[in-house]
Amino acid sequence: MASAQQAVAAELARIEPVTGELGRLFAAAGHELALVGGPVRDAMLGRKHNDLDLTTSATPEETERILGPWGDALWDMGRDFGTIGCRKGPWVVEVTTYRTDAYDPSSRKPAVAFGDSLEGDLVRRDFTVNAMAVRLPGQELEDPHGGVVDLAHGVLRTPGRPEDSFSDDPLRMMRAARFAAQLDFEVDEAAVAAMTAMAERIDIISAERVRDELVKLVCAPHPRRGLALLVQTGLAERVLPELPALKLERDEHHRHKDVYEHTLTVLEQAIDLEPRLGGEGPDFVSRFAALMHDVGKPRTRRFVGDGTVTFHHHDVVGAKITRKRMQALRFSKDETEAVSQLVALHLRFHGYGSGEWTDSAVRRYVRDAGDQLERLHVLTRADCTTRNQRKADRLRRTYDDLEERIERLREAEGRAAVRPDLDGNQIMEILGIPAGREVGEAYRWLLEKRLDDGPMSEEAAREALLGWWAERADGADGAETSEGSESG
């Protein structure tokens, strides 16, 4: 408790130049102002942010009049929900009028009503650890629902009855799973029971809001905890049914691994490998591909005569299932295609054997992966969850060998993407043909030759193209002659 108090005191001192000035401006205008929610919680956890959420007794119009002269930039996209945003130097501030929200049972959107007190605003918030506030400019802590104690114990609990909270906004059930994954907290038993009993209420929430919570959960430090909670409560059946479907009934001989547990382990191993991708922060595409890579298994599971289990073509089926689910959740086309492509390719490496692939096969692997190659490296490596250390070491060494071959080919043949040695304009000039289907055929033939034989000089590519064109013409003439003889 003392350490939390020290952490929040240090953070309040750091942000005081901003919060203190704003507190005095709002007080001078006759309004209350308080730092609220996430910034207060994170201050107690020792986390620093330059994004500040505040709540006020002022209306949005009054807030706008105060923030306008103070900030460098102002925006009001959240005006309908009582929120006015502002940027000042490195600080981003959002000020929201005291609110009370309630959901109509058949509505996807909350009915927003402005409140008249800080206490009333805090009781409508999702969890006690987010229902703390610091009044400004005096910096008095308001914690009417025991958020400090819950924060110390690592527990997520609603300020009031969980049934009332989740009825007001059913998305809070997913937020419970998301915060559990972000903070590595337990969810209160009463809240879990309410989530289980009310899971079907999530159906009234828009796909976009569900998607956004799912992305935050998957990108959290401990996604396994949150995903397991969604499955446990039945929420996953409503928002991502492919995940609980992985809990396949074990065959009597236990000849296949637990696909659900395997999937969560692959996700964690993919997270460990994320530094390979070179980005900052979590990589959603890589993580979601790990989560979805085996979703084709339930539909493709077959028991063979000797009792073994097969999942033939689960990669192809899984890619289709993934695309359909991501489209239903309104993911962008780019994200959908990237994740689906990774799911479709995740088994390709296993044809490599102990290195029997030709250079042509390696080039095709790179070509088919395209700009997802590094993520495919991550997914393929993460997909090894065997407890047989000898097998795991062999798979790792084999993939090391494949990556080394890819690099050697890149260095020998140029690091650019694999393309034909002649472009479309050159093809049209050499063959004397206009743009059209035949140019596309020639381009694809050159690409296949490039994949088979490696790069050629422009002159060699020109000769090869002319040879192919001549053979193509001879073939067409022969076909016409044959048809003419048969018709005669």
In short:
This protein has helices spanning 2-28, 38-44, 60-70, 118-123, 147-153, 162-168, 171-183, 189-197, 207-218, 223-233, 235-239, 259-272, 284-292, 297-300, 314-328, 333-345, 359-369, 373-382, 389-413, 424-431, 437-453, 458-487; strands at residues 33-36, 51-56, 73-75, 83-88, 91-97, 99-103, 110-114, 133-136, 140-142, 155-156, 186-187, 302-303, 309-310. It is of the alpha+beta class and 488 residues long. The strands form four sheets. Strands 3-4-5-2-1-8-9 form a seven-stranded mixed sheet. The chain has a two-stranded antiparallel ribbon with strand order 6-7.
How does this model look, in words?
This protein is of the alpha+beta class and 488 residues long. The chain is 56% helix and 10% strand. The protein contains 22 helices and 13 strands. The protein has helices at 2-28, 38-44, 60-70, 118-123, 147-153, 162-168, 171-183, 189-197, 207-218, 223-233, 235-239, 259-272, 284-292, 297-300, 314-328, 333-345, 359-369, 373-382, 389-413, 424-431, 437-453, 458-487, and strands spanning 33-36, 51-56, 73-75, 83-88, 91-97, 99-103, 110-114, 133-136, 140-142, 155-156, 186-187, 302-303, 309-310. A seven-stranded mixed beta sheet has the order 3-4-5-2-1-8-9. The chain has a two-stranded antiparallel ribbon with strand order 6-7. Strand 4 and strand 5 form a beta hairpin. Helix 1 (2-28) runs antiparallel to helix 2, helix 12 (259-272) packs across helix 18 and helix 13 packs across helix 16. The radius of gyration is 30 Å and the shape is elongated.
